[in-house]
Amino acid sequence: MKNLKLTIFSMVTAFIMVTSCTNNESVIEDPQNTEESASLTTALDVLQQRFDANGNFNGESNPAGNIVFDFGFDFVYPLTLSYNNDATVVVENLGDLVTVLLNSSQNLYISGIAFPFNVEVYNSTTNSIEVITITNESDFEVLIESINFDDPINCECTEVYDPVCVEVTDPAGNTFTITYYNPCYAECDGFTQNNFVETCEDDYTSGNECFSINYPISIYGENNSTIVINSEEELNNATYGIYSFNFVYPFDITLENGDVLTINSNEDIEAVLDDCYTVENPDDCEECANEPIDPVCVEIEDENGDTITYAYDNACYALCDGYTEADFVACNSSNDLCLPSAISDALVNNSGWAISDYAGSTDYSNLEISFNADGSLQWMDSGATFNGNWSASENPVNGNMLSLSFSGPNLQIATGNWMIVDCDLPCSISLLSNDGTEMTLSRDCD
């Protein structure tokens, strides 16, 4: 039976939901042997940008689905951390760590770590993940500098599904496979075509939600242990921390048209995914970016029965998503024309953007944000300059998206993927998170 590789894995969604809770139960009031660490602060700041404000895994910035490659290293747990008030907390896994970060604030935040601790890093010479020990702050600084957090590689990859695979050896000596959405993402992580394996199984992430799993199902985890999975969240949680797993066959899925299909093998899954990604339109979708902007719109019905209109920059993109000219409707309202291209032009070519409303809570309108054409952004708070990243992309299924990440205090709450729900360009953009949180980006306009 083939091993299925761990990627940004879920058949239905590319997000990992971290359970929302408080940290009180795991906080230890007696200070332990921890030390203040500037390197830890830097690392946790970058790590938090990999998740949105609700703990959702940001698939676009994590193409490998493996924290060693997407982040630069992985802590070996358990890990003892300390707050700025000297209380300590023990985190048992990545989910615990993200939960701690989400529940931190300007007044209570992680500032120290217990040395020594171990981390997993990738050794390109041996093409393997190895464990190294960080004995003190100097060692930690060397690790952070080797990753070069301050100057991240800015990779702009298309969303064309053309999976490539690379094989890597884990610390136990076992070989596992990482699947990238296309060669560009793999090359951004430092791999070359010489690293690509010839037999690459399809990535089992279904980007267009053309089917859903009928839970419960079972999988074989590490050491051939059997794990019963009752939901998408349980599947994400069970598979995120392991390199490979096998399905226990058979199990059922429900297709988009409501038909129930029994899956008896990996080949059955691959056949379904072939149907998911098959595009009737013969045109080369990569060429759509070269077509002039001439918006077309289509209407779909969401799960609540409401009709929603989505816009494409041109007909080529709509055809490549499986629509036909018979599906096109007139683009009349401003909401229809909240295109990523128009959003990008408005953000880059106009100054004075700020978060004028975030769920009706704290006022951030005095913190102006500058958006750059290269996908970076800057903002100032109390005289200090902070950085971040942004991108606008088409998503006809879930709505056109604006992805934001902010370093520093305050605006980190706005880090995440936001659906563009309305716009009055170049003055305001109304946004909605996947948990229903509302936010508005706006600027003073005549």
Distance between the amino and carboxyl termini? 65 Å
Structural class: alpha+beta
The helix tally amounts to 9
Count all strands and give the number: 28
Oligomeric category: single chain
Q: Mean pLDDT, nearest integer? A: 75
Number of domains: 3
Based on Cα principal axes, name the global outline.
globular
With strands numbered from the N-terminus, the spatial order across the biggest sheet is: 21-22-23-24-25-26-27-28
In percent, how helical is the residue content?
A: 10-25%
How would you portray this structure in words?
With about 450 residues, the chain is of the alpha+beta class. The protein has three domains: about 1-280, no CATH class; about 285-330, no CATH class; about 340-440, Beta Barrel (Lipocalin). It contains nine helices and 28 strands. The strands form seven sheets. It has an eight-stranded antiparallel beta barrel. Strands 2-6-5-7-3 form a five-stranded antiparallel β-sheet, covered by helices on one side. A hairpin with a 4-residue loop joins β22 (about 365-370) and β23.
